[in-house]
Specification:
The chain has 271 residues and is an alpha/beta fold. The protein contains 10 helices and 8 strands. An 8-stranded mixed beta sheet has the order 3-2-1-4-5-6-7-8. A hairpin with a 5-residue loop joins β5 and β6. α2 packs across α3 and α7 packs across α8. It is globular, with a radius of gyration of 19 Å.
Length: 271
């Protein structure tokens, strides 16, 4: 029989804790743009920065960026390593607190947002579905015109130039977003190394994500003449070409930010 102490033990394992200021800016701005209305409508909009790492920068920045879209948003930074929580406490302020915990997400009620960036990278692929299910169960439910809470889980490089994330609602995965600093991109498939754990081992022939990245590279090559007008124009032309064969769910206003979002079902692993 489990002891009371073990029952309270946070769920998950300690991450490397690597973090840098401004690393998650692309993800944060996307969240503010696509989920800001849900946060504004909520009576108590709570967002969770799950596994923020060895320093609290990402939680501090998340609060600032979300409040540009929804000024009443509160952020809870959650870390499984107690020493990291203690180190973050001096940065607490109105709307920002830090708590010890893991995938159980120890906050009252159901948050409207859980962001888990660079957390599942160290886990095995076959563990991802269970973690997603657990985190989605903690989200605010849909209803009364609301789509409910949002889980954003993904991976980026150390300085945030390249990032891929999956967005999930209470019902499960919805979309996959590819985001990049366009000036640093040689070809779209460079983003493959930042695929989240659910997809990174599926970038092989016969899997949808491999076919998508192949078509992305081909469209990028075909749009080479637009490079004379800048990387953004080449990207816009490339993504527009992708819409002929892939269910791109966003619009040029997001493409101009170096993003493209595709329905999860089109990229989901086979088998």
């Amino acid at each position: 029989m489990a002891t009371r102490a073990s029952a309270r033990r946070p769920v998950g394992t300690v991450t490397r804790g690597t973090t840098n200021p401004n690393r998650l800016r692309r993800m944060d701005r996307w969240i503010a743009a696509v989920h800001g209305a849900e946060l504004r409508r909520a009576a108590e909009p709570v967002a969770v920065d799950l596994g923020y790492g060895a320093a609290p920068w990402t939680a501090v920045e998340l609060l600032g960026r979300l409040r540009t879209a929804a000024p009443r948003t509160r952020v809870v930074g959650i870390e499984i390593e107690p020493e990291r929580v203690a180190a973050a406490r001096p940065y607490e302020r109105e709307g920002l607190v830090f708590r010890h915990g893991g995938f159980e997400v120890p906050v009252p009620g159901r948050p409207l947002l859980i962001r888990a960036a660079n957390v599942l990278r160290q886990y095995d692929e076959d563990q991802v579905a269970a973690v997603w299910k657990r985190l989605c169960a903690r989200l605010a439910p849909a209803g009364d015109g609301s789509r409910g809470g949002l889980l954003v889980e993904g991976t980026c490089d150390e300085i945030g130039r390249r990032h891929v994330w999956v967005a999930l609602g209470p019902e499960g995965p919805r979309t996959v977003t590819f985001a990049t600093r366009l000036g640093s991109l040689d070809r779209p498939s460079d983003l493959a190394e930042r695929l989240p754990k659910a997809l990174i081992h599926r970038n092989v022939p016969g899997e949808p994500v491999h076919a998508f990245l192949r078509d992305f590279d081909r469209a990028w090559a075909a749009a080479a003449p637009y490079a004379a007008y800048g990387a953004r124009q080449r990207w816009l032309r490339t993504v527009r070409a992708l819409t002929a064969d892939w269910p791109v769910t966003d619009a040029p206003v997001r493409w101009r930010q170096g993003e493209v979002t595709v329905a999860w079902g089109a990229l989901a692993p086979q088998g």
